[in-house]
UniProtKB/TrEMBL annotation:
<protein>
    <recommendedName>
        <fullName>Erythronate-4-phosphate dehydrogenase</fullName>
        <ecNumber>1.1.1.290</ecNumber>
    </recommendedName>
</protein>
<keyword id="KW-0520">NAD</keyword>
<dbReference type="InterPro" id="IPR029752">
    <property type="entry name" value="D-isomer_DH_CS1"/>
</dbReference>
<feature type="binding site">
    <location>
        <position position="45"/>
    </location>
    <ligand>
        <name>substrate</name>
    </ligand>
</feature>
<feature type="domain" description="D-isomer specific 2-hydroxyacid dehydrogenase NAD-binding">
    <location>
        <begin position="107"/>
        <end position="247"/>
    </location>
</feature>
<dbReference type="InterPro" id="IPR038251">
    <property type="entry name" value="PdxB_dimer_sf"/>
</dbReference>
<keyword id="KW-0560">Oxidoreductase</keyword>
<dbReference type="Pfam" id="PF00389">
    <property type="entry name" value="2-Hacid_dh"/>
</dbReference>
<dbReference type="GO" id="GO:0033711">
    <property type="term" value="F:4-phosphoerythronate dehydrogenase activity"/>
</dbReference>
<dbReference type="GO" id="GO:0005829">
    <property type="term" value="C:cytosol"/>
</dbReference>
<keyword id="KW-0963">Cytoplasm</keyword>
<feature type="binding site">
    <location>
        <position position="230"/>
    </location>
    <ligand>
        <name>NAD(+)</name>
    </ligand>
</feature>
<dbReference type="GO" id="GO:0008615">
    <property type="term" value="P:pyridoxine biosynthetic process"/>
</dbReference>
<feature type="active site">
    <location>
        <position position="235"/>
    </location>
</feature>
<feature type="binding site">
    <location>
        <begin position="204"/>
        <end position="206"/>
    </location>
    <ligand>
        <name>NAD(+)</name>
    </ligand>
</feature>
<feature type="domain" description="D-isomer specific 2-hydroxyacid dehydrogenase catalytic">
    <location>
        <begin position="13"/>
        <end position="302"/>
    </location>
</feature>
<feature type="binding site">
    <location>
        <position position="256"/>
    </location>
    <ligand>
        <name>substrate</name>
    </ligand>
</feature>
Length: 381
């Protein structure tokens, strides 16, 4: 079995073992010639997968280690009889922790939400619904909009206008041009103009969901909202003035926890096993280091949440990195640096699934710990 895989996908060799020969390539540069003699192709979001790349090749399986599939011509793959698998859900918790950190690090939005302000979630798939359940656990109100889902399957369902009027707006739709509810430039024109100074807008979906020119114009005008962008139109060529005007910007890394990347590779290998492409014994999962954090003191619930989130991740650190390497350089160099940040992203572990030790001074915060998906341990002194 011959596999061509994006160089930025962890553990492919370990999980495939001696069942496959793996050739690694930079995702943006994978060509038809590269895949011509291979049986399977494993990509990330930066490789367009379509007839131009695969028609007439031996490829029988395509897996994308991503939730978004807008880079894949799924209907052509189906027509061509090529099995396709994505990894939707594998990085949902990583994105949710990014969003919660963005909220916790921006002014007093966390305090306002704990006091009754509302989060508007657009897109109620793996990320949007997990965000909703974390917010609910923390006692934070939310409303959600997803017109593609059956009525009744979206908690606290609301219209798009209602979601965009909330205090914090979190964008999590798949990128689609499909009628009647395309999400490309879902936030554009009057909807961007209506954003106001007491709102926080977070986009960790796809850059094209927001009209970046319209957003820049809004951020340059008086009473602008706070904005956090993980994704940008025309990545890796991002609009430098927009980065200068957002509160936090990052290089499309919301889903880049080590845990989520590993899980995505595991999902794709399982999919190859399920469709009978891989023979031989399945390689067992890789060893997981135990993760433990402590909460020794906290002045309030908001403080406890902020400390716990920051023990695993801070958006501000990624923001500083992105500004340092992409501002005040030529656009082509900035684009290269954007990709380099993604390629050499430091190891980041998720908070959820870890153990948090509480002391007698912090025992009151056990519900917060559980709401963030952690296991709670109380230290007996
Ligand atoms: N920044 C990152 O690192 C990162 C990580 C994971 C996912 N993503 C992006 O976020 C998106 C959501 O991830 P997911 O795992 O929840 O995907 P998902 O496929 O589980 O859910 C996507 C949801 O978007 C909804 N949707 C589509 N068009 C919509 C519209 N016009 N209005 C409202 N909702 C709409 C769909 O009905 C679906 O429920 C992905 O498609 C991907 O593009 C980004
Ligand atoms: O759709 C997704 O899952 C994310 O956007 C994904 O994490 C992007 O990372 P990439 O595939 O570009 O490395």
């Amino acid at each position: 079995m011959r596999v061509v895989a994006d160089e930025n996908m962890p553990a492919v060799e370990q999980l495939l073992g001696d069942r496959a020969q793996v050739r690694r390539l930079p995702g943006r540069q994978i060509t038809r010639a590269d895949v011509a003699g291979a049986d399977a192709l494993l990509v990330r979001s930066v490789t367009p997968v379509n007839a131009a790349l695969l028609a007439g090749t031996d490829i029988r399986f395509v897996g994308t280690a991503t939730a978004g599939t807008d880079h894949v011509d799924v209907s052509w793959l189906r027509q061509a009889g090529i099995t396709f698998a994505d990894a939707a859900g594998a990085n949902a918790n990583s994105v949710v922790e990014y969003v919660l950190c963005a909220i916790a690090e921006t002014d007093d939005f966390l305090e306002r939400l704990l006091a009754g302000a509302v989060v508007g979630i657009v897109g109620f798939g793996h990320v949007g619904s997990l965000l909703a359940s974390r917010l609910e656990g923390l006692g934070i109100r939310f409303r959600a909009h997803d017109p593609w889902l059956a009525p009744g399957s979206v908690a606290n369902a609301c219209s798009l206008a209602e979601a965009l009027a909330c205090d914090v707006i979190c964008l999590h739709p798949a990128l689609t041009d499909a009628a009647p509810w395309p999400s490309r430039h879902l936030l554009a024109g009057k909807r961007v103009a209506a954003l106001h100074a007491s709102q926080l807008l977070i986009n960790a979906s796809r850059g094209e969901v927001v009209d970046n020119h319209a957003l820049l114009a809004r951020l340059q005008a008086p009473a602008a909202p706070q904005t956090v962008l993980d994704v940008w139109e025309h990545e890796p060529r991002i609009m430098a003035p927009l980065l200068e005007h957002v509160r936090f910007g990052s290089a499309h890394i919301a889903g880049y926890s080590y845990d989520s990347k590993l899980l995505a590779t595991q999902r794709l290998v399982q999919a190859m096993e399920c469709c009978g492409l891989l023979s031989g014994a399945s390689v067992s999962g890789l060893a997981d280091e135990p993760r433990q954090w402590r909460l020794d003191s906290a002045a309030s619930t908001a403080d406890a949440i902020r400390q716990l989130l920051a023990s695993a991740y801070t958006v501000s650190a990624d923001d500083q990195q992105l500004r340092a390497v992409t501002l005040n350089v030529a656009p082509a160099q900035a684009a290269g640096q954007f990709d380099e940040l993604r390629k050499h992203y430091p190891l980041r572990r998720e908070l959820a699934g870890s153990h948090v030790v509480l002391t007698t001074a912090t025992a009151a915060y056990s519900e917060v710990v559980t709401a963030l998906g952690c296991h709670c341990e109380t230290e007996v002194r």
